[in-house]
Structure formats: structure tokens, C-alpha cells
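User: I've been trying to design a sequence by hand for this structure and keep getting stuck. Would you show me what you'd pick, starting by listing the structure so we're on the same page?

Assistant: Good idea, let's start from the same input. This is the structure you sent:
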């Protein structure tokens, strides 16, 4: 174990991007691939070493202090502190810290479902390694962040962590078995917000229940999603947006069958299509959050109050200077 007691106080800030699922949500929980892009809505973690013997967390939601030697388990902490405390706990199981203050802030609201917990986990772990000058590869950072997420919420494919670490657009298989960049100069997708915050864990459990009741039916649907993801990967790479649109609509149909779409999503999707969208699908767990929208290349610039301005294919985790 290295001891950072001797270091004089210093600080560093890391930032990590949010994510937007393009294809393959839910299927990716069950060992199928998905496609995700990083969005330039970042979370910043500023880390400062001290000798207080404490972890002090200052975030937009709360200020929280714990003894570093007694970080307990996730259930011992308020929801808003769990990912940060667990990240520090995993780090201090390998490297000793004499005291630490972490301040986080977001460039986006957590309501959109851009993955604030994954981005904060990655940004905190990255900043802890940077400040203590412990080198870590992207793959090692992914494994540690994934462990952290599993310890806190017990489930998840880790696709959001990969987006936060690597950035860009990725082809991803459950648990990071494959993490492969998809090279395309730009993604002409728009993002619409439903106005409703989704609860990922409940929706993932709902699909797991459906799969338990109808194993063959649901596995067929998930295999179809896999086929969509593989074709979408090619189509995105080849800039074949007509095909991407069609694949989005088919994927949306399957998500409807899995029970994770809502009347509001359908309504918004119909309205966007009337205004010139050729492909619309929910993005992420469903139940609300965001939709991805592809515009028909012939129609005029799509306008709708639900559309939000986000840059896609953002850079992965980095140190802020
Ligand atoms: C949630 O944004 C996406 C899901 O596939 C869950 C996951 O992959 O962890 C539903």
C-alpha cells in the first residue's frame, strides 16, 4: 500500500461525459451488444488531498462527510452520495489516503437520463488516480468503475461507463467484453426530451420478469435487437442514414413489445414524424428520458419544443486544466 500522507495538499479536476444509447438497450443487459455515443454534457469532479482522515463530498445535491476508515456499504449513505463513496472505498482498498475533499458539479441536469452516476463514478476514479499519480489503463478504470456500479445498484451492463471513459461512439458488449469505437465523421441525430424522469432499475427488472415468464419469446426479441445493432453498426459507419432510420423504428417496435415504451413516447414520436422525422426511438431504459430522432433528409429543419441541444460523440474522461 502506498501512503499519500506525505503529500502536501493539492488538487485536480477530471470531467467525464454523459451518454446516449443509440441501439440495443435492455438486450445489452442479457449479453447482447449495443451502440452508445458520449454526449458533451459533462460531470466535473474536483479532488483535493488533505490530512483530515475524512471523505468530504460537496455536490449540487448534498454535503456529506464520513470517516475514511469507515466507509460502510452503499445502503449506509444517501442515494446521492453512494457512487462517490463507493468509488473512494474501492480506491482506498488499494491506496491509502489521509483525507480527501471531492466537489462535483454537472453541466447538465440529471433529469435527462444522460447517466450522471456513471459519469461521476468515472470522473472521481480518474481524479483519484491522477492526484495520487497512480497510473491506470482505460480497461482497468472500466473494471473498477463497473465494480462500483454493481456494488451500488446490483445490475447494469456498464455501457454508460464505457461512454464516459472512451467517449465517441462505441459498439459495446455487456460488462465490457467488447468495447470498439465506431468511426463516423458526424452523427446527424437530434435528441428530444419527454419531460419524464425514468427509473432504470425498475424498468430493467420489468424486462427480466417478462423474460422469466416468456423466456423463448423474449430471447427471440433480444436476438432481433442484436441483429439490428449489428446492421446499425455497419450503417452508421457507412453513413447510410435511411437504413439507420428504419432500424431505429424497428428497434422502437421491439422496445414497445418489451413493455418499456409509454403512451407519451408514442405521442411524441408520432408528432415528430408528422414534422419530418423519419426515425424515432426511445434511448435508454424507456419510461421517459430522451428519444433519438433522425430527420428525413428531404424535409426542412425539424423544429419541436421537445428538442434539446446536445453535441454527440464527445471526448471521454480527461483532466481539466
Ligand atoms: C439504460 O440506460 C440501458 C439499459 O440497457 C440498462 C443497462 O444497459 O445497464 C436498460
Amino acid at each position: 500500500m502506498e501512503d499519500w500522507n506525505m503529500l502536501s495538499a493539492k488538487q485536480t479536476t477530471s470531467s467525464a461525459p454523459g451518454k446516449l444509447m443509440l441501439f440495443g438497450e435492455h438486450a445489452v443487459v442479457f449479453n447482447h451488444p449495443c451502440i452508445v455515443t458520449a454526449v458533451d454534457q459533462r460531470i466535473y469532479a474536483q479532488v483535493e488531498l488533505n490530512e483530515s482522515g475524512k471523505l468530504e463530498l460537496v455536490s449540487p445535491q448534498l454535503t456529506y462527510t464520513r470517516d475514511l476508515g469507515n466507509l460502510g456499504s452503499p445502503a449506509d449513505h444517501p442515494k446521492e452520495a453512494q457512487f462517490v463513496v463507493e468509488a473512494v472505498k474501492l480506491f482506498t482498498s488499494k491506496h491509502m489516503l489521509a483525507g480527501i475533499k471531492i466537489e462535483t458539479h454537472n453541466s447538465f441536469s440529471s433529469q435527462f437520463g444522460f447517466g450522471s452516476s456513471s459519469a461521476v463514478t468515472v470522473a472521481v476514479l480518474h481524479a483519484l488516480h491522477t492526484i495520487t499519480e497512480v497510473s491506470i489503463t482505460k480497461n482497468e478504470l472500466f473494471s473498477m468503475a463497473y465494480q462500483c456500479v454493481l456494488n451500488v445498484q446490483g445490475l447494469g451492463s456498464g455501457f454508460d461507463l464505457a461512454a464516459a471513459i472512451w467517449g465517441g461512439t462505441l459498439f459495446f458488449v455487456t460488462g465490457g467484453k467488447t468495447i470498439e469505437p465506431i468511426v463516423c465523421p458526424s452523427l446527424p441525430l437530434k435528441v428530444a426530451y419527454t419531460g419524464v424522469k425514468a427509473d432504470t432499475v425498475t424498468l430493467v427488472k420489468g424486462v427480466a420478469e417478462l423474460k422469466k415468464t416468456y423466456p423463448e419469446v423474449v430471447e427471440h426479441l433480444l436476438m432481433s435487437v442484436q441483429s439490428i445493432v449489428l446492421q446499425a453498426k455497419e450503417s452508421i459507419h457507412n453513413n447510410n442514414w435511411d437504413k439507420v432510420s428504419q432500424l431505429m423504428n424497428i428497434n422502437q417496435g421491439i422496445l414497445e413489445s418489451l413493455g418499456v415504451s409509454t403512451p407519451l413516447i408514442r405521442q411524441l414520436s408520432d408528432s415528430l414524424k408528422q414534422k419530418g422525422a423519419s426515425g424515432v426511438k426511445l434511448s435508454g431504459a424507456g419510461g421517459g428520458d430522451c428519444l433519438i430522432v433522425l430527420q428525413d433528409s428531404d424535409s426542412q429543419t425539424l423544429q419541436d419544443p421537445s428538442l434539446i441541444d446536445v453535441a454527440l460523440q464527445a471526448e471521454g474522461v480527461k483532466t481539466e486544466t
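That's my pick for every position. To get oriented when you compare it with your attempt: Residues 21, 25-26, 28-29, 156-157, 159, 200, 204, 284-285 surround (R)-mevalonate (CB under 6 Å). The two ends are 29 Å apart (CA to CA).
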